[in-house]
């Protein structure tokens, strides 16, 4: 289903505090480096038009929210929503979430192309999002990438499942909602296999909506309006992640 067109953000709005580019991000991503405080940090991957980050950052001012949206015009649209409401606890990145979560790759190593000449491999640095540092990761209605050969592009790929779990603190949450049953079932299996420390999937319930924008996200609104079932789960991390070498194959058929 095609996405509705976006209104242009008001050119008089200063988006600078609300919209980051990959080049302007601090090397290490944390509440301290992004917001200058130590509030718990929640990351949303694929914010779309930004309904979730807008409403959740108002509902929980004691937490910080960092939305990552790869499509620049959508990231700018989200940032404009936050700017209009003068949020001090939320901002957007116009960029790809996957390299930010990657292990052992700091921005400067990446940009300086630092190689260990003896082994011709990139020099490892600490991950940009520290292990055990996040309060929550939110993934709502990720693009399904239907074709089997495209599945590695899914946001809930094997690598990202491991990295989201690594980045969560014990007690932290991974929320995953989708209206694609196949994506839902495969992801539940993958998480059980790759990140058992996340425990069992806890169902999340549908809330009644009281007005036309009273939905969790725009895609949830769309699915419910068209009567399409939505599958919602939350995981709560129970223990520290096992360190699994990157590229370790799994037995799942993704
Ligand atoms: C189907 S939309 C859902 C948007 C929103 N979560 C909602 O429920 O309304 C998926 C969004 O994820 C974004 N996206 C896809 N891959 C991404 C990535 N690697 N990093 C950040 N955003 C990504 C897409 O641009 C798109 O806006």
Automatic annotation (TrEMBL):
Record PROSITE patterns: SAM_MT_TRMB
InterPro entries, per database record: SAM-dependent_MTases_sf (IPR029063), tRNA_(Gua-N-7)_MeTrfase_Trmb (IPR003358), tRNA_methyltr_TrmB_bact (IPR055361)
Coiled coil location: none
Binding site for S-adenosyl-L-methionine: 44, 69, 96, 143
Cited CDD domains: AdoMet_MTases (cd02440)
Reaction(s) this enzyme catalyzes, per UniProt: guanosine(46) in tRNA + S-adenosyl-L-methionine = N(7)-methylguanosine(46) in tRNA + S-adenosyl-L-homocysteine
Keyword Cytoplasm (UniProt): no
Residues holding substrate: 147, 179, 217-220
Protein keywords: Methyltransferase, S-adenosyl-L-methionine, Transferase, tRNA processing
Pfam families according to UniProt: Methyltransf_4
EC number: 2.1.1.33
Pathway note: tRNA modification; N(7)-methylguanine-tRNA biosynthesis
Alphabetical list of HAMAP family matching this protein: tRNA_methyltr_TrmB
UniProt record similarity statement: Belongs to the class I-like SAM-binding methyltransferase superfamily. TrmB family.
Function in brief: Catalyzes the formation of N(7)-methylguanine at position 46 (m7G46) in tRNA.
Identification of the protein by name: tRNA (guanine-N(7)-)-methyltransferase
Organism the protein comes from: Neorhodopirellula lusitana
Lineage: Bacteria, Pseudomonadati, Planctomycetota, Planctomycetia, Pirellulales
